[in-house]
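Bench log. Compound arrived from synthesis this morning; before running ITC I wanted a structural hypothesis for how zinc ion sits in the protein. Inputs:
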Amino acid sequence: MSKPDELVFVPLGGVGEIGMNLALYGCGHGKTRQWLAVDMGVAFGKDDLPGVDAVLPDIGFLAAQKKNLAGIAITHAHEDHFGALFDFWPRLQAPVFMSPFAAGLLAAKQAGEPGAPKIPVTVVEQGGRVRAGPFEVEYVPVSHSIPECSSLAIRTPAGLVLHTGDWKLDPTPLIGRPTDEDRFAALGEEGVLALICDSTNAIRDGVSPSEADVAGVMEAMIAKAPHRVVVTTFASNVARLRTVAIAAQKAGREVVVVGRSIHRALAVAGELGYLDGLPPFHDQDAFSQFARNKVVALMTGSQGEPRAALARVAGGGHRAVKLAPGDKVIFSSRSIPGNERSVNAIINALVDRGMEIVTDRDALVHVSGHPRRDELRQMYEWTRPQILVPVHGEALHLHEQAKLGRAAGVPEVIETRNGGMVRLAPGPAERLKDVSSGRLYRDGKLLLDPETAGIADRRRMSFSGAVFVSIVMTARGEVEDDPQIALLGLPLTDGEGETFQTIVEDAVDEAVDNLPKKRRLDAGAVRDIVRRAVRSEIDAVWGKKPPTVVLVTYLEA
Ligand SMILES: [Zn+2]
Ligand SMILES: [Zn+2]
Protein backbone atom coordinates (compact mmCIF):
# COMPACT_ATOMS: atom_id res chain seq x y z
CA MET A 1 0.00 0.00 0.00
CA SER A 2 1.29 3.49 -0.81
CA LYS A 3 1.78 6.02 1.93
CA PRO A 4 -1.29 8.22 2.59
CA ASP A 5 -0.95 11.75 1.20
CA GLU A 6 0.45 14.31 3.58
CA LEU A 7 -1.26 17.69 3.75
CA VAL A 8 0.66 20.70 5.07
CA PHE A 9 -0.11 24.38 5.59
CA VAL A 10 2.65 26.98 5.32
CA PRO A 11 1.96 30.70 5.69
CA LEU A 12 4.60 32.92 4.06
CA GLY A 13 2.90 36.16 5.13
CA GLY A 14 0.04 37.57 7.21
CA VAL A 15 0.54 35.40 10.29
CA GLY A 16 1.99 37.53 13.07
CA GLU A 17 1.22 40.78 11.27
CA ILE A 18 -1.64 42.51 9.48
CA GLY A 19 -1.11 42.53 5.72
CA MET A 20 0.86 40.68 2.99
CA ASN A 21 -1.25 37.52 3.18
CA LEU A 22 0.17 34.50 1.41
CA ALA A 23 -0.66 30.93 2.43
CA LEU A 24 0.46 27.65 0.91
CA TYR A 25 -1.12 24.23 1.01
CA GLY A 26 1.03 21.26 0.05
CA CYS A 27 -0.32 17.82 -0.78
CA GLY A 28 1.80 14.70 -1.34
CA HIS A 29 5.36 13.84 -0.39
CA GLY A 30 8.84 15.23 -0.83
CA LYS A 31 9.78 16.43 -4.28
CA THR A 32 6.46 15.47 -5.86
CA ARG A 33 4.38 17.42 -3.36
CA GLN A 34 1.94 19.73 -5.17
CA TRP A 35 1.25 23.24 -3.94
CA LEU A 36 -1.68 25.64 -3.94
CA ALA A 37 -1.06 29.29 -3.06
CA VAL A 38 -3.91 31.26 -1.49
CA ASP A 39 -3.65 35.05 -1.87
CA MET A 40 -0.58 37.13 -2.68
CA GLY A 41 -0.77 40.44 -0.85
CA VAL A 42 1.27 43.40 0.29
CA ALA A 43 1.55 45.40 3.49
CA PHE A 44 2.17 49.12 3.30
CA GLY A 45 5.45 50.80 4.19
CA LYS A 46 5.54 52.72 7.44
CA ASP A 47 7.35 55.81 8.71
CA ASP A 48 10.24 53.65 9.91
CA LEU A 49 10.85 52.42 6.35
CA PRO A 50 11.60 55.65 4.48
CA GLY A 51 11.09 55.29 0.73
CA VAL A 52 9.45 51.86 0.95
CA ASP A 53 6.10 51.77 -0.86
CA ALA A 54 5.07 48.27 0.14
CA VAL A 55 6.31 45.25 2.06
CA LEU A 56 5.93 41.85 0.42
CA PRO A 57 6.46 38.30 1.62
CA ASP A 58 9.69 36.66 0.48
CA ILE A 59 8.56 33.90 -1.89
CA GLY A 60 11.95 32.21 -2.27
CA PHE A 61 10.56 28.95 -0.83
CA LEU A 62 7.62 28.97 -3.25
CA ALA A 63 9.69 30.00 -6.27
CA ALA A 64 11.93 26.95 -5.65
CA GLN A 65 8.79 24.74 -5.89
CA LYS A 66 7.52 26.57 -8.95
CA LYS A 67 7.14 23.48 -11.13
CA ASN A 68 4.88 21.90 -8.49
CA LEU A 69 2.72 25.01 -8.01
CA ALA A 70 -0.72 23.97 -9.26
CA GLY A 71 -2.43 27.33 -8.87
CA ILE A 72 -2.86 30.66 -7.11
CA ALA A 73 -6.35 31.20 -5.66
CA ILE A 74 -7.28 34.77 -4.68
CA THR A 75 -10.03 35.21 -2.06
CA HIS A 76 -10.78 38.90 -2.77
CA ALA A 77 -9.39 42.08 -4.27
CA HIS A 78 -7.97 43.88 -1.23
CA GLU A 79 -4.32 44.86 -1.62
CA ASP A 80 -3.30 42.75 1.39
CA HIS A 81 -4.58 39.73 -0.58
CA PHE A 82 -3.79 40.39 -4.22
CA GLY A 83 -1.48 43.43 -4.31
CA ALA A 84 1.70 41.41 -4.94
CA LEU A 85 0.49 39.56 -8.04
CA PHE A 86 2.19 41.91 -10.48
CA ASP A 87 5.45 41.53 -8.58
CA PHE A 88 5.41 37.73 -8.25
CA TRP A 89 3.39 36.23 -11.06
CA PRO A 90 6.17 36.55 -13.65
CA ARG A 91 8.38 34.38 -11.39
CA LEU A 92 5.67 31.79 -10.75
CA GLN A 93 3.59 31.63 -13.95
CA ALA A 94 0.92 29.40 -12.37
CA PRO A 95 -2.83 29.54 -13.15
CA VAL A 96 -4.57 32.32 -11.19
CA PHE A 97 -8.19 32.12 -9.96
CA MET A 98 -10.34 35.00 -8.76
CA SER A 99 -13.84 36.47 -8.83
CA PRO A 100 -15.18 38.64 -11.69
CA PHE A 101 -14.89 41.79 -9.55
CA ALA A 102 -11.29 41.00 -8.55
CA ALA A 103 -10.42 40.23 -12.18
CA GLY A 104 -11.99 43.53 -13.25
CA LEU A 105 -9.97 45.50 -10.68
CA LEU A 106 -6.79 43.66 -11.64
CA ALA A 107 -7.34 44.52 -15.31
CA ALA A 108 -8.02 48.17 -14.42
CA LYS A 109 -4.86 48.28 -12.31
CA GLN A 110 -2.89 46.69 -15.11
CA ALA A 111 -4.14 49.29 -17.57
CA GLY A 112 -3.11 52.07 -15.17
CA GLU A 113 0.41 50.78 -14.46
CA PRO A 114 2.80 50.90 -17.39
CA GLY A 115 4.90 47.74 -17.46
CA ALA A 116 2.56 45.69 -15.28
CA PRO A 117 2.53 42.08 -16.50
CA LYS A 118 -0.57 40.74 -18.19
CA ILE A 119 -1.73 37.89 -15.97
CA PRO A 120 -4.05 35.28 -17.47
CA VAL A 121 -6.87 34.88 -14.95
CA THR A 122 -9.47 32.13 -14.65
CA VAL A 123 -12.61 33.82 -13.38
CA VAL A 124 -14.56 31.89 -10.73
CA GLU A 125 -18.06 32.93 -9.76
CA GLN A 126 -18.99 32.73 -6.08
CA GLY A 127 -20.22 29.20 -5.42
CA GLY A 128 -18.10 27.93 -8.32
CA ARG A 129 -15.33 25.32 -8.20
CA VAL A 130 -11.99 24.97 -9.94
CA ARG A 131 -9.41 22.21 -9.99
CA ALA A 132 -5.68 22.76 -9.56
CA GLY A 133 -3.61 19.58 -9.36
CA PRO A 134 -4.83 17.54 -6.39
CA PHE A 135 -6.81 20.53 -5.05
CA GLU A 136 -10.43 21.25 -5.79
CA VAL A 137 -11.23 24.80 -4.69
CA GLU A 138 -14.80 25.91 -3.99
CA TYR A 139 -15.50 29.65 -3.66
CA VAL A 140 -17.98 29.99 -0.74
CA PRO A 141 -19.57 33.46 -0.51
CA VAL A 142 -18.84 35.58 2.59
CA SER A 143 -19.65 39.16 3.59
CA HIS A 144 -16.68 41.50 3.90
CA SER A 145 -16.01 45.12 2.89
CA ILE A 146 -15.52 44.54 -0.83
CA PRO A 147 -17.74 42.76 -3.35
CA GLU A 148 -17.35 39.05 -4.09
CA CYS A 149 -15.23 37.92 -1.18
CA SER A 150 -15.04 34.15 -0.72
CA SER A 151 -13.85 31.57 1.74
CA LEU A 152 -12.15 28.68 0.00
CA ALA A 153 -13.24 25.12 0.68
CA ILE A 154 -10.19 23.18 -0.49
CA ARG A 155 -10.76 19.48 -1.07
CA THR A 156 -7.68 17.29 -1.20
CA PRO A 157 -7.06 13.52 -1.11
CA ALA A 158 -6.02 14.06 2.54
CA GLY A 159 -9.13 15.96 3.63
CA LEU A 160 -11.15 19.17 3.37
CA VAL A 161 -9.60 22.44 4.51
CA LEU A 162 -11.59 25.63 4.93
CA HIS A 163 -9.53 28.77 4.38
CA THR A 164 -11.87 31.56 5.49
CA GLY A 165 -10.03 34.55 4.02
CA ASP A 166 -11.50 37.82 5.32
CA TRP A 167 -15.11 37.47 6.40
CA LYS A 168 -17.83 38.58 8.75
CA LEU A 169 -21.45 37.69 9.34
CA ASP A 170 -23.52 40.43 7.83
CA PRO A 171 -27.04 39.37 6.91
CA THR A 172 -27.53 42.72 5.12
CA PRO A 173 -24.28 43.51 3.26
CA LEU A 174 -26.25 45.71 0.80
CA ILE A 175 -24.54 44.30 -2.26
CA GLY A 176 -23.53 40.79 -3.17
CA ARG A 177 -24.27 37.61 -1.32
CA PRO A 178 -24.16 37.39 2.48
CA THR A 179 -22.06 34.74 4.20
CA ASP A 180 -23.55 31.45 3.02
CA GLU A 181 -24.53 29.86 6.34
CA ASP A 182 -26.11 26.79 4.79
CA ARG A 183 -23.01 26.07 2.77
CA PHE A 184 -20.77 26.32 5.84
CA ALA A 185 -23.11 24.01 7.76
CA ALA A 186 -23.05 21.56 4.84
CA LEU A 187 -19.25 21.64 4.83
CA GLY A 188 -19.41 20.83 8.54
CA GLU A 189 -21.54 17.78 7.69
CA GLU A 190 -19.06 16.76 5.01
CA GLY A 191 -16.28 16.98 7.62
CA VAL A 192 -13.83 19.85 7.90
CA LEU A 193 -10.31 18.68 8.71
CA ALA A 194 -8.92 22.16 9.32
CA LEU A 195 -10.24 25.71 9.60
CA ILE A 196 -7.68 28.39 8.73
CA CYS A 197 -9.41 31.47 10.10
CA ASP A 198 -9.30 35.31 10.13
CA SER A 199 -8.18 36.63 13.57
CA THR A 200 -8.30 40.42 12.94
CA ASN A 201 -11.12 41.12 15.43
CA ALA A 202 -10.66 38.14 17.75
CA ILE A 203 -10.14 40.51 20.68
CA ARG A 204 -13.55 42.13 20.17
CA ASP A 205 -16.66 40.75 21.84
CA GLY A 206 -20.03 40.36 20.23
CA VAL A 207 -20.98 40.70 16.59
CA SER A 208 -19.90 43.42 14.16
CA PRO A 209 -22.62 45.85 13.07
CA SER A 210 -24.03 45.51 9.57
CA GLU A 211 -23.35 47.60 6.50
CA ALA A 212 -27.08 48.39 6.62
CA ASP A 213 -26.62 50.02 10.05
CA VAL A 214 -24.01 52.33 8.54
CA ALA A 215 -26.40 53.16 5.70
CA GLY A 216 -29.06 54.28 8.18
CA VAL A 217 -26.63 56.56 10.00
CA MET A 218 -25.24 58.03 6.78
CA GLU A 219 -28.70 58.76 5.40
CA ALA A 220 -29.73 60.64 8.52
CA MET A 221 -26.46 62.55 8.62
CA ILE A 222 -26.53 63.63 4.97
CA ALA A 223 -30.23 64.56 5.20
CA LYS A 224 -29.49 66.89 8.13
CA ALA A 225 -26.30 68.49 6.80
CA PRO A 226 -26.83 72.18 6.12
CA HIS A 227 -24.03 72.57 3.56
CA ARG A 228 -21.74 70.47 1.40
CA VAL A 229 -20.90 66.91 2.41
CA VAL A 230 -17.68 65.09 1.58
CA VAL A 231 -17.45 61.35 2.26
CA THR A 232 -14.06 59.68 2.12
CA THR A 233 -13.82 55.89 2.14
CA PHE A 234 -11.92 52.93 0.67
CA ALA A 235 -12.47 52.94 -3.09
CA SER A 236 -13.12 49.19 -3.21
CA ASN A 237 -15.93 49.36 -0.64
CA VAL A 238 -18.63 49.43 -3.31
CA ALA A 239 -21.44 48.87 -0.81
CA ARG A 240 -20.36 52.07 0.95
CA LEU A 241 -20.18 53.99 -2.33
CA ARG A 242 -23.69 52.76 -3.04
CA THR A 243 -24.86 53.77 0.43
CA VAL A 244 -23.60 57.30 -0.11
CA ALA A 245 -25.27 57.53 -3.52
CA ILE A 246 -28.62 56.41 -2.11
CA ALA A 247 -28.35 58.71 0.91
CA ALA A 248 -27.59 61.62 -1.42
CA GLN A 249 -30.51 60.79 -3.67
CA LYS A 250 -32.89 60.65 -0.70
CA ALA A 251 -31.62 64.05 0.42
CA GLY A 252 -32.07 65.52 -3.07
CA ARG A 253 -28.33 65.84 -3.66
CA GLU A 254 -26.04 65.02 -6.59
CA VAL A 255 -22.94 62.84 -6.15
CA VAL A 256 -19.57 63.98 -7.45
CA VAL A 257 -16.61 61.56 -7.59
CA VAL A 258 -13.15 62.90 -6.82
CA GLY A 259 -10.15 60.59 -7.18
CA ARG A 260 -9.00 58.02 -9.70
CA SER A 261 -9.29 54.88 -7.58
CA ILE A 262 -13.01 55.49 -6.88
CA HIS A 263 -13.66 56.08 -10.58
CA ARG A 264 -11.87 52.81 -11.30
CA ALA A 265 -13.85 50.83 -8.69
CA LEU A 266 -17.13 52.32 -9.92
CA ALA A 267 -16.33 51.41 -13.51
CA VAL A 268 -15.68 47.78 -12.57
CA ALA A 269 -18.71 47.64 -10.23
CA GLY A 270 -20.97 49.20 -12.85
CA GLU A 271 -20.03 46.59 -15.43
CA LEU A 272 -21.02 43.83 -13.02
CA GLY A 273 -24.37 45.45 -12.25
CA TYR A 274 -23.58 46.60 -8.70
CA LEU A 275 -24.65 50.17 -9.44
CA ASP A 276 -27.97 49.31 -11.08
CA GLY A 277 -30.77 51.68 -10.11
CA LEU A 278 -28.44 54.42 -8.89
CA PRO A 279 -28.53 57.97 -10.27
CA PRO A 280 -25.46 58.94 -12.33
CA PHE A 281 -22.19 59.92 -10.69
CA HIS A 282 -20.71 63.27 -11.77
CA ASP A 283 -17.10 64.09 -12.44
CA GLN A 284 -15.25 66.50 -10.15
CA ASP A 285 -15.65 69.45 -12.53
CA ALA A 286 -19.39 69.45 -11.75
CA PHE A 287 -18.71 70.09 -8.05
CA SER A 288 -18.76 73.89 -8.21
CA GLN A 289 -21.92 73.93 -10.32
CA PHE A 290 -24.18 72.51 -7.62
CA ALA A 291 -25.66 74.56 -4.79
CA ARG A 292 -23.92 74.08 -1.46
CA ASN A 293 -26.77 72.03 -0.01
CA LYS A 294 -27.28 69.96 -3.17
CA VAL A 295 -24.01 68.06 -3.41
CA VAL A 296 -22.13 65.13 -1.87
CA ALA A 297 -18.55 64.43 -2.91
CA LEU A 298 -17.11 60.91 -2.72
CA MET A 299 -13.40 61.31 -2.28
CA THR A 300 -10.20 59.24 -2.06
CA GLY A 301 -7.65 59.85 0.67
CA SER A 302 -9.22 58.36 3.81
CA GLN A 303 -5.79 56.99 4.82
CA GLY A 304 -4.12 60.39 4.69
CA GLU A 305 -2.34 59.63 1.41
CA PRO A 306 -0.55 62.91 0.61
CA ARG A 307 -1.29 62.83 -3.13
CA ALA A 308 -4.96 61.80 -2.83
CA ALA A 309 -7.85 64.20 -3.36
CA LEU A 310 -8.70 64.80 0.30
CA ALA A 311 -5.18 65.90 1.23
CA ARG A 312 -5.25 68.48 -1.56
CA VAL A 313 -8.73 69.67 -0.58
CA ALA A 314 -7.59 69.98 3.06
CA GLY A 315 -4.65 72.08 1.92
CA GLY A 316 -6.97 74.29 -0.13
CA GLY A 317 -5.09 73.39 -3.32
CA HIS A 318 -7.61 71.22 -5.17
CA ARG A 319 -8.43 72.52 -8.63
CA ALA A 320 -12.10 71.52 -8.72
CA VAL A 321 -13.14 71.12 -5.10
CA LYS A 322 -13.10 74.01 -2.65
CA LEU A 323 -14.83 73.76 0.71
CA ALA A 324 -16.10 76.51 2.99
CA PRO A 325 -16.55 76.71 6.77
CA GLY A 326 -19.51 74.60 7.89
CA ASP A 327 -19.12 71.95 5.19
CA LYS A 328 -19.07 68.42 6.59
CA VAL A 329 -16.34 65.83 5.98
CA ILE A 330 -17.23 62.25 6.93
CA PHE A 331 -14.42 59.72 7.36
CA SER A 332 -16.33 56.55 6.48
CA SER A 333 -13.23 54.50 7.15
CA ARG A 334 -10.76 53.43 9.79
CA SER A 335 -7.10 54.40 9.82
CA ILE A 336 -4.94 51.40 8.96
CA PRO A 337 -2.30 51.08 11.74
CA GLY A 338 0.66 53.25 10.75
CA ASN A 339 -1.49 55.85 8.96
CA GLU A 340 -2.97 57.54 12.04
CA ARG A 341 -0.54 60.44 11.98
CA SER A 342 -1.16 61.39 8.36
CA VAL A 343 -4.92 61.06 8.82
CA ASN A 344 -4.83 63.28 11.90
CA ALA A 345 -2.81 65.90 10.03
CA ILE A 346 -5.55 66.10 7.41
CA ILE A 347 -8.31 66.21 10.01
CA ASN A 348 -6.52 69.07 11.76
CA ALA A 349 -6.05 70.97 8.51
CA LEU A 350 -9.77 70.61 7.78
CA VAL A 351 -10.74 71.75 11.28
CA ASP A 352 -8.47 74.77 10.89
CA ARG A 353 -10.40 75.70 7.77
CA GLY A 354 -13.71 75.46 9.62
CA MET A 355 -15.03 72.11 8.38
CA GLU A 356 -17.18 69.81 10.51
CA ILE A 357 -15.51 66.43 10.89
CA VAL A 358 -17.22 63.10 11.56
CA THR A 359 -15.21 59.93 12.17
CA ASP A 360 -16.17 56.48 13.42
CA ARG A 361 -15.47 57.76 16.93
CA ASP A 362 -18.48 60.08 16.61
CA ALA A 363 -21.01 57.88 14.84
CA LEU A 364 -21.44 54.52 13.14
CA VAL A 365 -20.10 55.73 9.80
CA HIS A 366 -17.86 52.69 9.33
CA VAL A 367 -17.89 49.00 10.20
CA SER A 368 -15.08 46.50 10.08
CA GLY A 369 -15.23 43.63 7.61
CA HIS A 370 -13.86 41.06 10.07
CA PRO A 371 -15.52 38.69 12.52
CA ARG A 372 -15.79 39.41 16.22
CA ARG A 373 -15.80 36.66 18.85
CA ASP A 374 -19.45 35.61 18.56
CA GLU A 375 -19.07 35.35 14.81
CA LEU A 376 -15.97 33.18 15.21
CA ARG A 377 -17.85 30.90 17.62
CA GLN A 378 -20.66 30.65 15.09
CA MET A 379 -18.21 29.60 12.37
CA TYR A 380 -16.77 26.85 14.66
CA GLU A 381 -20.29 25.63 15.33
CA TRP A 382 -21.22 25.40 11.66
CA THR A 383 -18.04 23.81 10.44
CA ARG A 384 -16.95 21.75 13.48
CA PRO A 385 -13.29 21.57 12.40
CA GLN A 386 -10.88 18.98 13.78
CA ILE A 387 -8.04 21.56 13.64
CA LEU A 388 -8.05 25.34 13.97
CA VAL A 389 -5.15 27.50 12.75
CA PRO A 390 -5.60 31.23 13.44
CA VAL A 391 -4.20 33.51 10.70
CA HIS A 392 -4.59 37.14 9.49
CA GLY A 393 -3.53 38.92 12.64
CA GLU A 394 -0.78 40.10 14.94
CA ALA A 395 0.47 37.78 17.68
CA LEU A 396 -2.20 38.92 20.15
CA HIS A 397 -5.06 38.41 17.69
CA LEU A 398 -3.82 34.93 16.77
CA HIS A 399 -3.43 33.91 20.37
CA GLU A 400 -6.87 35.23 21.35
CA GLN A 401 -8.50 33.23 18.59
CA ALA A 402 -6.54 30.14 19.63
CA LYS A 403 -7.91 30.47 23.18
CA LEU A 404 -11.41 31.06 21.85
CA GLY A 405 -11.20 27.95 19.66
CA ARG A 406 -9.99 25.78 22.55
CA ALA A 407 -12.74 27.09 24.80
CA ALA A 408 -15.28 26.31 22.05
CA GLY A 409 -14.08 22.71 22.01
CA VAL A 410 -12.09 22.57 18.78
CA PRO A 411 -10.02 19.39 19.34
CA GLU A 412 -6.68 20.64 17.95
CA VAL A 413 -5.58 24.27 17.89
CA ILE A 414 -2.23 25.10 16.34
CA GLU A 415 -0.53 28.47 16.52
CA THR A 416 2.05 29.17 13.86
CA ARG A 417 3.90 32.09 12.28
CA ASN A 418 5.17 33.02 8.84
CA GLY A 419 7.34 30.15 7.61
CA GLY A 420 6.03 27.71 10.23
CA MET A 421 4.94 24.56 8.41
CA VAL A 422 2.00 22.73 9.99
CA ARG A 423 1.13 19.14 9.12
CA LEU A 424 -2.66 18.82 8.96
CA ALA A 425 -2.77 15.14 7.93
CA PRO A 426 -2.19 12.33 8.47
CA GLY A 427 -2.14 11.94 12.23
CA PRO A 428 -2.42 14.70 14.80
CA ALA A 429 -1.67 18.24 13.61
CA GLU A 430 1.89 19.22 14.31
CA ARG A 431 4.19 22.15 13.74
CA LEU A 432 7.10 20.95 11.60
CA LYS A 433 10.40 22.54 10.68
CA ASP A 434 10.20 26.18 9.51
CA VAL A 435 10.74 26.91 5.83
CA SER A 436 12.63 30.00 4.75
CA SER A 437 10.46 33.10 4.91
CA GLY A 438 10.93 36.83 5.27
CA ARG A 439 10.01 40.04 3.60
CA LEU A 440 10.89 42.16 0.61
CA TYR A 441 10.59 45.90 0.14
CA ARG A 442 9.01 47.41 -2.94
CA ASP A 443 10.95 50.62 -3.45
CA GLY A 444 10.28 52.49 -6.67
CA LYS A 445 10.91 50.04 -9.48
CA LEU A 446 12.88 47.58 -7.35
CA LEU A 447 12.08 44.70 -5.05
CA LEU A 448 14.74 44.69 -2.36
CA ASP A 449 16.09 42.40 0.32
CA PRO A 450 15.77 44.28 3.65
CA GLU A 451 19.40 43.44 4.46
CA THR A 452 20.75 45.29 1.44
CA ALA A 453 18.02 47.87 0.78
CA GLY A 454 19.94 50.70 2.47
CA ILE A 455 17.07 51.51 4.84
CA ALA A 456 19.29 51.77 7.94
CA ASP A 457 21.38 54.46 6.23
CA ARG A 458 18.26 56.31 5.11
CA ARG A 459 16.99 56.29 8.67
CA ARG A 460 20.34 57.57 10.00
CA MET A 461 20.43 60.31 7.35
CA SER A 462 16.88 61.36 8.16
CA PHE A 463 18.05 61.88 11.73
CA SER A 464 21.36 63.64 11.21
CA GLY A 465 22.05 64.29 7.52
CA ALA A 466 25.33 63.23 5.93
CA VAL A 467 28.86 64.59 5.43
CA PHE A 468 31.07 64.03 2.38
CA VAL A 469 34.80 64.82 2.28
CA SER A 470 37.11 64.44 -0.68
CA ILE A 471 40.90 64.69 -0.18
CA VAL A 472 43.43 64.71 -3.00
CA MET A 473 47.07 63.84 -2.08
CA THR A 474 50.30 63.87 -3.99
CA ALA A 475 52.27 60.64 -4.34
CA ARG A 476 54.49 61.91 -1.50
CA GLY A 477 51.65 62.35 0.97
CA GLU A 478 51.15 66.13 0.69
CA VAL A 479 47.62 67.46 0.58
CA GLU A 480 47.05 68.91 -2.87
CA ASP A 481 44.59 71.80 -2.66
CA ASP A 482 41.87 72.24 -0.01
CA PRO A 483 39.68 69.25 0.72
CA GLN A 484 36.22 69.36 -0.86
CA ILE A 485 33.38 69.14 1.62
CA ALA A 486 29.67 68.67 1.04
CA LEU A 487 27.08 68.71 3.83
CA LEU A 488 23.58 67.33 3.39
CA GLY A 489 20.90 68.03 5.95
CA LEU A 490 23.15 69.59 8.60
CA PRO A 491 22.25 72.87 10.31
CA LEU A 492 24.05 75.89 8.84
CA THR A 493 25.80 76.91 12.08
CA ASP A 494 26.44 75.69 15.62
CA GLY A 495 25.33 77.48 18.80
CA GLU A 496 28.17 80.01 18.53
CA GLY A 497 27.39 80.92 14.95
CA GLU A 498 30.29 78.96 13.48
CA THR A 499 29.34 77.26 10.22
CA PHE A 500 29.51 73.49 10.04
CA GLN A 501 31.42 73.95 6.80
CA THR A 502 34.27 75.59 8.75
CA ILE A 503 34.03 73.11 11.62
CA VAL A 504 34.43 70.21 9.21
CA GLU A 505 37.22 71.91 7.22
CA ASP A 506 39.23 72.54 10.40
CA ALA A 507 38.69 68.99 11.60
CA VAL A 508 39.90 67.57 8.28
CA ASP A 509 43.00 69.80 8.14
CA GLU A 510 44.01 69.04 11.70
CA ALA A 511 43.48 65.30 11.30
CA VAL A 512 45.65 65.13 8.18
CA ASP A 513 48.33 67.40 9.68
CA ASN A 514 48.64 65.16 12.71
CA LEU A 515 49.21 62.10 10.57
CA PRO A 516 52.89 61.20 9.94
CA LYS A 517 53.79 61.50 6.22
CA LYS A 518 54.28 57.77 5.83
CA ARG A 519 50.84 56.95 7.17
CA ARG A 520 49.34 59.46 4.76
CA LEU A 521 50.20 57.08 1.91
CA ASP A 522 47.75 54.58 3.38
CA ALA A 523 44.32 55.54 2.01
CA GLY A 524 42.52 53.46 4.64
CA ALA A 525 44.36 55.16 7.49
CA VAL A 526 43.58 58.63 6.11
CA ARG A 527 39.94 57.73 5.62
CA ASP A 528 39.53 56.40 9.15
CA ILE A 529 41.31 59.21 10.95
CA VAL A 530 39.49 61.94 9.02
CA ARG A 531 36.14 60.27 9.44
CA ARG A 532 36.63 59.88 13.18
CA ALA A 533 37.83 63.48 13.58
CA VAL A 534 34.93 64.95 11.62
CA ARG A 535 32.33 62.96 13.50
CA SER A 536 33.77 63.74 16.89
CA GLU A 537 34.03 67.51 16.16
CA ILE A 538 30.42 67.59 14.97
CA ASP A 539 29.34 65.56 17.97
CA ALA A 540 31.10 68.04 20.30
CA VAL A 541 29.00 70.98 19.06
CA TRP A 542 25.79 69.28 17.95
CA GLY A 543 25.49 66.07 19.96
CA LYS A 544 25.04 63.94 16.82
CA LYS A 545 27.33 61.91 14.60
CA PRO A 546 26.13 62.07 11.01
CA PRO A 547 27.15 59.33 8.55
CA THR A 548 30.43 60.55 7.02
CA VAL A 549 31.96 59.49 3.74
CA VAL A 550 35.65 60.26 3.09
CA LEU A 551 37.14 59.76 -0.38
CA VAL A 552 40.94 59.78 -0.74
CA THR A 553 42.66 60.09 -4.11
CA TYR A 554 46.43 60.03 -4.86
CA LEU A 555 47.97 61.85 -7.80
CA GLU A 556 50.47 59.93 -9.93
CA ALA A 557 54.12 60.62 -9.10
ZN1 LIG B 1 -10.06 42.17 3.00
ZN1 LIG C 1 -7.22 41.10 4.72
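What the model suggests: The CA atoms of residues 249 and 279 lie 7 Å apart. The longest strand covers residues 135-142.
ITC booked for Thursday regardless.
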